[in-house]
TrEMBL record:
A Pfam family per the record: Glycos_transf_2
Gene3D superfamilies in UniProt: Spore Coat Polysaccharide Biosynthesis Protein SpsA, Chain A
InterPro entries linked to this entry: Glyco_trans_2-like, Nucleotide-diphossugar_trans
Top-level taxon in the UniProt lineage: Bacteria
Provenance organism: Alteromonas halophila
Entry-linked PANTHER family: GLYCOSYLTRANSFERASE, SLR1065 PROTEIN
UniProt GO molecular function: hexosyltransferase activity
Annotated protein name in UniProt: Glycosyltransferase 2-like domain-containing protein
Domain Glycosyltransferase 2-like: 6-127
Amino acid sequence: MQPKLSVVIPSYNQAAYLEDTLKSVFAQGYPNLEVIVVDGGSDDGSVEIIKRYASKLAWWVSEPDNGQTHAINKGFARATGEILAWLNSDDLFLPGAISTAVNRLVASENADVVYGQRMLINEKGEDIGQWVVSEAHSYVLAYADFIPQETLFWKRSLWEKVGSALNEDYKFAMDWELLLRFKACGARFQKIDRFMGAFRFHPAQKTVAQIGESGFKEMEKLRVAYAKTPGKSRYNARAMTLTLIRFMLTSRLKELFFRH
């Protein structure tokens, strides 16, 4: 039997995209799948969507929480899978993503974490570009989180090794903080050279809304801790991050976000 995979889906007022996210998970056809939805008390019709899929869910709840990181931790506290992942309620798994990730983690003795390439889509689900990732070199990862979260899968044994929880002090960069903890404890990363997830850009997206408000502060905090770049070096770190972003984005997306 294939190992059980637990996927946690945090959501809050994402009715416009939630069903597409759920469909992308169940369309994988993976035979040993545990899906957990943690909704933050949505009032936009999300609960009605979740109820339609209730028979396929291992557990779901809709109640106020302390934000996305807290919601994800609530979900993982219920998860029983040997392999873990989370998928935000506006993003997608691409066809074959789950079986590809699980097969690599099972087949390779040198993989605790796997990740793949990322497609970029707009609010209509239209392809607007690609985010092409590289290997997880320690030095680069300490400066910038270039690993696409929606393509990220890891072993439960590693999760338990780092405390079985995301750090709730981080509201924006919690995935990067987790990756840095993985790296610090000796986790072995492997890149899968295949498009495995789709990251959605839309007006209400948390990434767009929070990067200026709290995102840069959290990222700077992580660089100081892991890359040892206090003081004015943080400006070099930010420049390095923007350079990496420019390098990884395809030309179509660059035209949207880096117009002069």
